[in-house]
Here is the input.
Amino acid sequence: MVKIDSQTKMKFLHGFSHKTRVQILESVKEEEKTVSQIVNDLNGNQSNISQHLACLKGCGLIVGKKDGKYVYYSVRNQLVRDLLTMFDVVLEDIQNDIAYCEKHID
Amino acid sequence: MVKIDSQTKMKFLHGFSHKTRVQILESVKEEEKTVSQIVNDLNGNQSNISQHLACLKGCGLIVGKKDGKYVYYSVRNQLVRDLLTMFDVVLEDIQNDIAYCEKHID
DNA sequence: TTATTATATTAGCAATGACTAATATGTGTG
DNA sequence: CACACATATTAGTCATTGCTAATATAATAA
Here is the structure.
């Protein structure tokens, strides 16, 4: 197994650390969508969603292809799709035991 | 597939969103360790590590078993272990293309 | 029982991340 | 060309998260 640079890894994982980003990932998991479609899906605001999209792209989780005035975003590849599925599998397994982690760190 | 509550999901994913927490997960992935062993492994400070451990526990990613004055932490189960491995598999695949995401959101 | 070691918790400050609003860029259309 | 639409970017502010230092708790050892 090739060595993974820790900084790269954190950049990647950062993609999953915000609700809006995770919702975007779910929204484009099975089919590519334009920014406005995503904005609609999530009932978000354009600027905000665009910023999260830029982040997800930087994290390597999604790719965007431009077509005229639209940009179509989709999950990068099948591995990333599998990873998203895996989250749900693991969660299904542990969800009932998850204790409160309200303060997230304390 | 059972429905995953979005709040629970975010709590879970939050566990992976900080370098120290990821390092802790890696440190206890294959063998359980006491807090002080982890503090040593990571060259961290006790209070800080304790706080991250509490977070990881709250996120459902690790479990701690108390034995006398020691607490042994380990990854919750094989599924979580698999998920950690999967991160590396996916990363190996995309690591070279990951563009900068320096600002993480902008 | 006093001291020591291991871990957890709290409070306050420092740092990072996210949101909104405004504006810029780029593309097609009347 | 002027306008409208889709998306991106920037700046400023607000909110969240994380760190350090101090202290608390709990278990063992002297």
User: Anything to note?
Assistant: Residues 99-106 of chain B have pLDDT under 50 and may be disordered. Chain B is about 55% helix and 15% strand. The helical segments of chain B are 6-14, 19-28, 35-42, 46-58, 78-94. Chain B touches chain A through 50 residues (CB under 8 Å).
